[in-house]
Amino acid sequence: MGLLAPGDVVGDRLVVQQPLGQGAYAEVCRVWHEVLGRQAMKVFKHLTSDARTRELLGEAQLLSRLGHHNIVRVFDAGMIRTAEGARGYFTMEYLPGGSLHRLLGYSRASDVWSLGTIALATLELDRIVLATLELDPRQRISHAMELADRLRARHAPATPHRRPEPPPAPPDCDRGPEHTAAQAQATRALALARRLGGLAEAAAELDRAVRRCPCARGRHGYRVELWRRGVVM
Fold this sequence. Notes:
- By secondary structure, the chain is α+β, with helices and mostly antiparallel strands.
- The protein is 42% helix and 18% strand.
């Protein structure tokens, strides 16, 4: 069950139509604004104080300052208040067509960003990507150019990146000794990945960690993958 259901009303002008997706810290749904029409709304998962919610809404403030044809426009931002605390949200342009993960048919990492994103969109790096990518080279280059253009605009004001969020732990993990050992292996894999010439060794170490506990693909594992793609790019 999502944070909001179809038919829910937010404020006095937004009606939830359908969920679109979610990440580690927020959900996105399609909403209808009574004046402006169809929009996308990002809702933070965690209930916090008003002050903390305003900090989280800094993402909306940042987007509102970036005027670029490859970056969505933000329309509004606010809070949904409950007895347990406040939950922030902001509305932005709705762009139909699915996500980058759906386009690439690839879901090994929960998030992609910076050079890892461009590498994921352009390079056929391993058998998983080779088996799933259906984009021809011209399409991959086109998407990469758009992504690079967004990154250029994103860095122009010298604003900091939000720290990437790892995927949540699988619900069946008991966090026992194997979990602890796998996390230690994944940490070593990340250190190996950052060492010159250590990417192959890092991938092998990560695979061993994942066999011990799927959680290893999370906090450190997906950073190993993105580091690898960024380096290759």
